[in-house]
From TrEMBL:
It holds the Pfam family HNH. Residues 222-232 have a biased composition (Basic and acidic residues). Residues 321-371 form the HNH nuclease domain. InterPro entries: DUF222, HNH, HNH_nuc. The lineage of its organism: Bacteria, Bacillati, Actinomycetota, Actinomycetes, Mycobacteriales. This is DUF222 domain-containing protein. Belongs to the Rv1128c/1148c/1588c/1702c/1945/3466 family. Residues 215-235 are annotated as: Disordered. It comes from the Bacteria.
Length: 417
């Protein structure tokens, strides 16, 4: 314990000294290059030690004493979530690896490269139909280490691991990679700008189901004025995914036509404009209004310590009988003609702004048109004919000439008067 404490004291002194390091104006390119290499080696050693310490924290149950997890403890200490996960993953694997710990401890590899090797070895082991002996594991570990030393990127190391995994499966009579559900992976992560990145590696059966569903719902559809679909193929597929999620939300047989989404909205009592969604944090007023059109919403008022002060009741908007009536009247998305089964029921006068939930204030919009109406200045009004009319923004039509609903697109204002 004394030696450990003494070493930590020395490291603290080194940190204090390093804060004084700068790139002098008189430094040569060679000196800066050598200095960068030294700092990278130091960073690699520190990354390894952090993985070792993360594993020790987990083994000693430090976080459990307060009812938490080691990952959350590391995040509270200042680690990024992905980095905390990487340290724990590497730390847990070091005891089962024979060569990598020494290379990592010497600072030969970056934490990202070490993680790629750890993940690669684990992938190869999963692909084997029988347990690999120590010698076989060592051979695969050495293969990935050799590739890392040759200058391969973490991604290339992962590709090599998959190739080795395929060879093992072929040799032992295992499933081909395309049919092996045991190595399926799927992740949904939030990006720094509040968006969501989806990443997956799926077997051929799950992939076929996904591609079939996406393809069946991502066809081109005309714009309201009859011009070709302005969406890219990527946007079409993203809209198709939302339709799949909406369909899944309506699959519960206990409901006839339930809301498309259920949302938990937390509202700080002192700053009500800083409302947050349960999973993905703050949303703009535009998005909040769009979601409120066709969602189950539970409002939770919280104080400065995130303690609930008041629990709102879930507000289920547009009950089944009104949905059915609106579907009978509109038949499809009033903007693009997408099938009614895809549609959200939109409040022409926003519900958040006091708009009523009744037949004359609702209309059908598919998810992509719903988002466009809220975000890009489209207005929808109820005409004298008791049907919705769309008023384009000036960027689409400088005269803002009203358009009838899609199923009545052959009508003209003169005929409707």
């Amino acid at each position: 314990m004394f030696e450990y404490a003494g070493l930590m004291g020395e490291i603290r002194s080194v940190i204090d000294s390093m804060r004084e390091v700068t790139v002098a104006d008189t430094a040569s390119g060679r000196q800066v290059f050598d200095g960068t290499k030294t700092l990278m080696e130091l960073r690699n050693v520190v990354d390894h030690l952090l993985a070792v310490h993360a594993a020790a924290l987990d083994r000693l149950g430090v976080a459990k004493q307060s009812g938490g997890t080691t990952r959350n403890l590391l995040i509270e200490m200042g680690a990024a979530p992905g980095v905390a996960s990487r340290w724990l993953r590497i730390g847990a694997a070091l005891a089962s690896l024979q060569r990598l710990p020494a290379y990592a401890g010497d600072g030969v590899f970056s934490g990202e490269h070490v993680d790629a090797i750890v993940l690669g070895v684990a992938h190869i082991i999963r692909r084997a139909t029988a347990d690999l002996c120590d010698q076989e594991r060592l051979e695969h570990e050495r293969a990935l280490i050799s590739q890392a030393m040759s200058g391969a990127t973490p991604k290339e190391i992962g590709q090599t691991a998959r190739e080795l995994g395929n060879q093992i499966a072929d040799e032992t009579g295992g499933l081909p990679a395309s049919e092996d559900r045991g190595v399926n992976e799927f992740s949904v992560t939030e990006t720094a700008d509040g968006r969501v990145r989806v990443k997956g590696d799926l077997d051929i059966v799950v992939g076929e189901k996904l591609m079939t569903a996406i393809d069946s719902l991502s066809g081109a559809r005309p714009e309201p004025d009859g011009s070709p679909d302005a969406r890219t193929r990527g946007q079409q597929r993203a809209d198709a995914l939302e339709q799949i999620l909406d369909a899944a939300g309506t699959a519960d047989p206990r409901f006839v036509t339930p809301p498309k989404t259920h949302i938990t909205l937390t509202v700080p009592a002192d700053t009500p404009d800083a409302a947050r969604l349960q999973w993905l944090g703050p949303v703009s007023q535009v998005t909040a209004k769009r979601l409120a059109c066709d969602a189950g919403i539970t409002e939770i008022i919280i104080d400065g310590q995130t303690v609930p002060l008041q629990m709102g009741h879930e507000k289920r908007l547009f009950p089944p009988h009104l949905r059915k009536a609106i579907i009978v009247r509109d038949r499809c998305c009033i903007k693009c003609g997408a099938p009614a089964s895809w549609g959200h029921v939109h409040h022409m006068r926003h519900w958040i702004d006091g708009g009523p939930t009744d037949l004359d204030n609702g209309c059908l919009l598919c998810p992509s048109c719903h988002a466009e109406v809220h975000a890009h200045g489209w207005e929808i009004v109820m005409g004298l004919d008791r049907h919705p009319w769309l008023i384009p923004p000036v960027t689409v039509d400088p005269r803002r000439h009203p358009l009838p609903a899609y199923n009545r697109r052959t009508m003209h204002l003169d005929a409707a008067a």
